[in-house]
Amino acid sequence: MDKAMISCECAGQLIEKKQEMKLSLADRMKLKFHLMMCSICRTFEKQSKLLGEWLEQQSEFPSRKALDKLKQKIKEQLDDE
Amino acid sequence: MSEIQFKQWVDDYTEYLLAWALMKISDRGTAEDLVQDTFLAAYRSKDNFKGEASPKTWLVSILKNKIADHYRSAQRKKVQYESSGQMTENEAAFFDKKGHWSPAFYPTEWEEQDKLEENEGFQKVLSLCISGLSTKMAAVIRLKFFEQQDGEDICKELEISSSNYWQLAHRAKLHLRACLEKNWFKVQKG
After folding, report:
1. Stretch B85-103: mean pLDDT, rounded?
2. Which CATH number is associated with domain B91-189?
3. Reported ipTM exceeds the 0.95 cut
4. Mutate which of B9, B130, B146 to test chain A, going by most A C-beta atoms within 10 A?
Protein backbone atom coordinates (compact mmCIF):
# COMPACT_ATOMS: atom_id res chain seq x y z
CA MET A 1 0.00 0.00 0.00
CA ASP A 2 2.72 2.42 1.01
CA LYS A 3 4.65 1.74 -2.15
CA ALA A 4 1.66 2.26 -4.38
CA MET A 5 0.84 5.54 -2.70
CA ILE A 6 2.90 8.51 -3.82
CA SER A 7 3.29 11.56 -1.57
CA CYS A 8 1.13 14.65 -1.92
CA GLU A 9 4.17 16.62 -3.03
CA CYS A 10 4.84 14.11 -5.77
CA ALA A 11 1.18 14.05 -6.75
CA GLY A 12 1.27 17.83 -7.02
CA GLN A 13 4.09 17.69 -9.55
CA LEU A 14 2.19 15.12 -11.59
CA ILE A 15 -0.89 17.34 -11.44
CA GLU A 16 1.21 20.14 -12.88
CA LYS A 17 2.72 17.94 -15.54
CA LYS A 18 -0.62 16.50 -16.57
CA GLN A 19 -1.87 19.96 -17.51
CA GLU A 20 0.88 20.32 -20.07
CA MET A 21 1.47 16.84 -21.42
CA LYS A 22 0.28 13.26 -21.45
CA LEU A 23 1.56 11.35 -18.45
CA SER A 24 3.07 7.89 -18.75
CA LEU A 25 0.72 5.05 -17.92
CA ALA A 26 2.53 4.39 -14.64
CA ASP A 27 2.28 8.04 -13.60
CA ARG A 28 -1.37 8.20 -14.58
CA MET A 29 -2.13 5.19 -12.40
CA LYS A 30 -0.16 6.55 -9.47
CA LEU A 31 -1.90 9.90 -9.66
CA LYS A 32 -5.33 8.41 -10.11
CA PHE A 33 -4.85 6.17 -7.11
CA HIS A 34 -3.56 9.03 -5.00
CA LEU A 35 -6.44 11.33 -5.91
CA MET A 36 -8.91 8.60 -5.10
CA MET A 37 -7.56 8.48 -1.59
CA CYS A 38 -6.67 12.12 -0.96
CA SER A 39 -9.32 14.83 -0.91
CA ILE A 40 -6.81 17.59 -0.17
CA CYS A 41 -5.00 16.90 -3.42
CA ARG A 42 -8.32 16.77 -5.27
CA THR A 43 -8.98 20.31 -4.05
CA PHE A 44 -5.47 21.29 -5.02
CA GLU A 45 -5.90 19.88 -8.52
CA LYS A 46 -9.03 21.93 -9.06
CA GLN A 47 -7.30 25.08 -7.86
CA SER A 48 -4.15 24.38 -9.85
CA LYS A 49 -6.23 24.24 -13.05
CA LEU A 50 -8.04 27.44 -12.12
CA LEU A 51 -4.71 29.15 -11.48
CA GLY A 52 -3.50 28.04 -14.90
CA GLU A 53 -6.56 29.59 -16.53
CA TRP A 54 -6.14 32.86 -14.67
CA LEU A 55 -2.46 33.03 -15.51
CA GLU A 56 -3.11 32.38 -19.18
CA GLN A 57 -5.66 35.13 -19.25
CA GLN A 58 -2.95 37.42 -18.00
CA SER A 59 -1.01 36.57 -21.15
CA GLU A 60 -1.92 39.97 -22.58
CA PHE A 61 0.49 41.20 -19.96
CA PRO A 62 2.06 43.57 -20.77
CA SER A 63 -1.08 44.72 -22.54
CA ARG A 64 -1.03 46.16 -26.02
CA LYS A 65 -2.07 49.50 -24.60
CA ALA A 66 0.68 49.59 -21.98
CA LEU A 67 3.19 48.60 -24.61
CA ASP A 68 2.11 51.35 -27.00
CA LYS A 69 2.37 53.85 -24.21
CA LEU A 70 5.92 52.77 -23.45
CA LYS A 71 6.92 52.98 -27.12
CA GLN A 72 5.48 56.47 -27.31
CA LYS A 73 7.36 57.52 -24.21
CA ILE A 74 10.64 56.22 -25.59
CA LYS A 75 10.13 57.97 -28.92
CA GLU A 76 9.34 61.24 -27.22
CA GLN A 77 12.51 60.95 -25.23
CA LEU A 78 14.50 60.32 -28.39
CA ASP A 79 13.05 63.51 -29.82
CA ASP A 80 14.55 65.41 -26.91
CA GLU A 81 18.01 64.06 -27.64
CA MET B 1 21.22 55.40 -39.26
CA SER B 2 18.33 57.81 -39.46
CA GLU B 3 16.07 58.73 -36.62
CA ILE B 4 13.14 57.19 -38.44
CA GLN B 5 14.97 53.91 -38.76
CA PHE B 6 15.81 53.96 -35.12
CA LYS B 7 12.22 54.62 -34.14
CA GLN B 8 11.27 51.58 -36.17
CA TRP B 9 13.48 49.60 -33.79
CA VAL B 10 11.47 50.96 -30.88
CA ASP B 11 8.34 49.61 -32.55
CA ASP B 12 9.94 46.30 -33.40
CA TYR B 13 11.86 45.45 -30.24
CA THR B 14 10.23 47.11 -27.24
CA GLU B 15 8.02 44.13 -26.52
CA TYR B 16 10.87 41.67 -26.75
CA LEU B 17 13.16 43.76 -24.56
CA LEU B 18 10.45 44.27 -21.96
CA ALA B 19 9.71 40.55 -21.80
CA TRP B 20 13.42 39.98 -21.41
CA ALA B 21 13.73 42.54 -18.63
CA LEU B 22 10.72 41.11 -16.84
CA MET B 23 12.41 37.75 -16.63
CA LYS B 24 15.18 39.31 -14.58
CA ILE B 25 13.27 41.99 -12.75
CA SER B 26 9.93 41.46 -11.13
CA ASP B 27 9.05 45.10 -10.79
CA ARG B 28 7.23 46.24 -13.88
CA GLY B 29 8.07 49.94 -13.58
CA THR B 30 11.78 49.29 -13.17
CA ALA B 31 11.76 46.93 -16.14
CA GLU B 32 10.13 49.60 -18.31
CA ASP B 33 12.64 52.21 -17.17
CA LEU B 34 15.52 49.93 -18.07
CA VAL B 35 14.10 49.28 -21.53
CA GLN B 36 13.79 53.01 -22.00
CA ASP B 37 17.38 53.55 -20.84
CA THR B 38 18.47 50.84 -23.23
CA PHE B 39 17.01 52.60 -26.25
CA LEU B 40 18.44 55.89 -25.12
CA ALA B 41 21.92 54.44 -24.73
CA ALA B 42 21.59 52.64 -28.05
CA TYR B 43 20.54 55.85 -29.74
CA ARG B 44 23.51 57.72 -28.36
CA SER B 45 25.92 55.12 -29.58
CA LYS B 46 24.07 54.11 -32.72
CA ASP B 47 27.14 54.89 -34.80
CA ASN B 48 28.87 52.03 -33.04
CA PHE B 49 26.36 49.60 -34.41
CA LYS B 50 28.05 48.04 -37.38
CA GLY B 51 25.35 45.61 -38.27
CA GLU B 52 27.53 42.61 -37.47
CA ALA B 53 24.98 41.35 -34.98
CA SER B 54 21.25 41.74 -35.41
CA PRO B 55 19.74 44.88 -33.86
CA LYS B 56 17.90 42.62 -31.44
CA THR B 57 21.11 40.99 -30.20
CA TRP B 58 22.78 44.35 -29.91
CA LEU B 59 19.91 45.86 -27.94
CA VAL B 60 19.73 42.85 -25.62
CA SER B 61 23.44 43.16 -24.87
CA ILE B 62 22.87 46.77 -23.84
CA LEU B 63 19.85 45.79 -21.77
CA LYS B 64 21.88 43.11 -20.00
CA ASN B 65 24.40 45.75 -18.96
CA LYS B 66 21.62 48.03 -17.77
CA ILE B 67 20.17 45.25 -15.64
CA ALA B 68 23.58 44.45 -14.19
CA ASP B 69 24.14 48.16 -13.46
CA HIS B 70 20.75 48.35 -11.84
CA TYR B 71 21.57 45.58 -9.40
CA ARG B 72 25.03 46.90 -8.76
CA SER B 73 24.08 50.50 -8.10
CA ALA B 74 20.91 49.87 -6.17
CA GLN B 75 22.69 47.97 -3.45
CA ARG B 76 19.96 48.67 -0.98
CA LYS B 77 17.35 47.52 -3.43
CA LYS B 78 19.40 44.48 -4.22
CA VAL B 79 19.36 43.38 -0.62
CA GLN B 80 15.61 43.79 -0.48
CA TYR B 81 15.21 41.96 -3.73
CA GLU B 82 17.34 39.05 -2.65
CA SER B 83 15.78 38.72 0.71
CA SER B 84 12.28 38.70 -0.71
CA GLY B 85 13.51 36.14 -3.22
CA GLN B 86 14.87 34.02 -0.43
CA MET B 87 11.73 34.26 1.57
CA THR B 88 9.76 32.60 -1.16
CA GLU B 89 12.56 30.29 -2.24
CA ASN B 90 13.08 29.26 1.33
CA GLU B 91 10.65 26.45 0.77
CA ALA B 92 7.75 27.63 2.83
CA ALA B 93 6.94 24.29 4.40
CA PHE B 94 4.04 23.27 2.21
CA PHE B 95 4.84 19.62 2.87
CA ASP B 96 6.33 17.70 5.75
CA LYS B 97 9.35 15.46 5.39
CA LYS B 98 7.25 12.64 4.06
CA GLY B 99 5.70 14.86 1.42
CA HIS B 100 2.30 15.15 3.06
CA TRP B 101 0.57 18.52 3.19
CA SER B 102 1.45 20.62 6.23
CA PRO B 103 -1.85 21.43 7.95
CA ALA B 104 -1.17 25.18 7.68
CA PHE B 105 -1.16 24.86 3.89
CA TYR B 106 -4.10 22.51 3.36
CA PRO B 107 -5.87 23.91 0.33
CA THR B 108 -9.34 24.87 1.47
CA GLU B 109 -12.22 25.06 -0.96
CA TRP B 110 -12.59 28.43 -2.64
CA GLU B 111 -15.93 30.03 -2.89
CA GLU B 112 -16.95 30.11 -6.53
CA GLN B 113 -16.89 33.59 -7.95
CA ASP B 114 -17.98 34.70 -11.38
CA LYS B 115 -15.70 36.40 -13.85
CA LEU B 116 -12.67 36.75 -11.64
CA GLU B 117 -10.61 37.36 -14.78
CA GLU B 118 -12.51 40.63 -15.24
CA ASN B 119 -12.38 41.63 -11.61
CA GLU B 120 -9.86 44.41 -11.23
CA GLY B 121 -9.33 43.86 -7.53
CA PHE B 122 -8.63 40.20 -8.05
CA GLN B 123 -6.23 40.90 -10.91
CA LYS B 124 -4.32 43.29 -8.70
CA VAL B 125 -3.97 40.69 -5.99
CA LEU B 126 -2.90 38.11 -8.56
CA SER B 127 -0.22 40.44 -9.97
CA LEU B 128 0.97 41.15 -6.49
CA CYS B 129 1.22 37.44 -5.76
CA ILE B 130 3.15 36.89 -8.99
CA SER B 131 5.57 39.67 -8.12
CA GLY B 132 6.26 37.97 -4.79
CA LEU B 133 7.60 34.84 -6.48
CA SER B 134 11.32 34.14 -6.57
CA THR B 135 13.08 35.17 -9.78
CA LYS B 136 13.23 31.63 -11.14
CA MET B 137 9.62 30.83 -10.38
CA ALA B 138 8.46 34.10 -11.88
CA ALA B 139 10.46 33.38 -15.02
CA VAL B 140 8.85 29.95 -15.35
CA ILE B 141 5.38 31.43 -14.88
CA ARG B 142 5.99 34.16 -17.42
CA LEU B 143 7.32 31.84 -20.10
CA LYS B 144 4.86 29.03 -19.45
CA PHE B 145 1.64 30.97 -19.09
CA PHE B 146 2.12 34.46 -20.48
CA GLU B 147 4.22 33.49 -23.46
CA GLN B 148 2.90 29.95 -23.63
CA GLN B 149 6.23 28.44 -24.52
CA ASP B 150 6.90 24.70 -24.47
CA GLY B 151 8.45 23.22 -21.36
CA GLU B 152 11.43 22.12 -23.40
CA ASP B 153 12.14 25.64 -24.65
CA ILE B 154 11.75 27.04 -21.16
CA CYS B 155 14.32 24.58 -19.81
CA LYS B 156 16.78 25.69 -22.47
CA GLU B 157 16.15 29.35 -21.94
CA LEU B 158 16.46 29.17 -18.16
CA GLU B 159 19.13 26.48 -18.23
CA ILE B 160 17.25 24.16 -15.91
CA SER B 161 16.53 20.44 -16.04
CA SER B 162 13.04 19.23 -16.83
CA SER B 163 12.51 17.89 -13.32
CA ASN B 164 13.60 21.24 -11.97
CA TYR B 165 11.11 22.88 -14.32
CA TRP B 166 8.18 20.81 -13.03
CA GLN B 167 9.25 21.45 -9.50
CA LEU B 168 9.44 25.21 -10.07
CA ALA B 169 6.08 25.31 -11.84
CA HIS B 170 4.51 23.29 -9.04
CA ARG B 171 6.04 25.40 -6.29
CA ALA B 172 5.04 28.60 -8.05
CA LYS B 173 1.44 27.38 -8.11
CA LEU B 174 1.68 26.47 -4.42
CA HIS B 175 2.86 29.97 -3.59
CA LEU B 176 0.26 31.64 -5.76
CA ARG B 177 -2.47 29.41 -4.33
CA ALA B 178 -1.52 30.25 -0.76
CA CYS B 179 -1.11 33.95 -1.59
CA LEU B 180 -4.52 34.19 -3.29
CA GLU B 181 -6.19 32.28 -0.50
CA LYS B 182 -4.77 34.62 2.10
CA ASN B 183 -5.15 37.89 0.22
CA TRP B 184 -8.30 37.32 -1.77
CA PHE B 185 -10.51 34.41 -0.82
CA LYS B 186 -10.21 34.82 2.95
CA VAL B 187 -10.62 38.59 2.67
CA GLN B 188 -13.74 38.15 0.55
CA LYS B 189 -15.21 35.92 3.17
CA GLY B 190 -14.57 38.69 5.67
Report:
1. 71
2. 1.10.10.10
3. no
4. B146
